[in-house]
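Subject: design request, 216 residues
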């Protein structure tokens, strides 16, 4: 995999899985639709089992762990073969655990001071969360001038209609979202519908050189 989570695809699906048994077919549908990077959030009891299952059975998927908020979760996620880590926010303790993990990570930020603090610590790639509530594209556009070295994966309140506005920004590498995973489709195990929605999301990078580079 590329060294950067931001360069895997224009959209990273954010997955909350009530049933780990659905992990493999769901991941296969997302990959078939052109979204290989999959963030499985640690919000459900079976999340680690889901990460482990995807890692073992879907070789074209790059599965990561989201909602990582403790050093213990960092260890558990890496043991489950998560290939990247995403946190909604960060502390120095959590940041050091993610750094020691040896896998790429995206610490979460929502303020300019947090971005500056991470840059001071050598981190240039971050999750911007909650994106829509924290200022959306206007906020990120404002950061690009004084802090051009910071790159973001905005997540939170982003859908198919708003994603292109984020992806057009020079400091945005990809966006995270769950609109391609509607609850009724997951509950019905309608993997064909999810694959189609994933294909629509993946096409957001079509015709854009930077997005084409992301899909290498």
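Subject: RE: design request

Done. Sequence follows.
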């Amino acid at each position: 995999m590329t060294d950067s989570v931001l360069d895997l695809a224009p959209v990273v699906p954010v997955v909350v899985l009530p049933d780990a048994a659905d992990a493999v077919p769901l991941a296969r549908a997302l990959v078939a639709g052109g979204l290989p990077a999959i963030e499985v959030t640690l919000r459900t009891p079976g999340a680690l089992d889901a990460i482990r299952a995807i890692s073992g059975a879907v070789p074209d998927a790059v599965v990561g762990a989201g909602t990582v908020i403790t050093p213990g979760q960092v260890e558990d996620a890496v043991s489950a073969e998560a290939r990247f880590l995403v946190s909604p926010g960060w502390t120095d303790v959590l940041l050091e655990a993610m750094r020691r993990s040896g896998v790429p990570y995206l610490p979460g930020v929502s303020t300019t001071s947090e971005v500056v603090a991470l840059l001071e610590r050598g981190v240039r790639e971050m999750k911007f969360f909650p994106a829509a509530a924290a200022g959306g594209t206007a906020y990120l556009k404002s950061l690009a001038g004084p802090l051009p070295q910071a790159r973001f994966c905005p997540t939170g309140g982003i859908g198919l209609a708003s994603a292109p506005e984020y992806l057009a920004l020079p400091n945005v590498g990809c966006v995270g979202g769950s609109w391609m995973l509607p609850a009724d489709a997951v509950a019905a195990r309608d993997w064909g519908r999810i694959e189609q929605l994933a294909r629509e999301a993946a096409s957001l990078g079509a015709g854009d050189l930077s997005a084409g580079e992301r899909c290498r």
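Confidence is low (pLDDT under 50) at residues 207-216.
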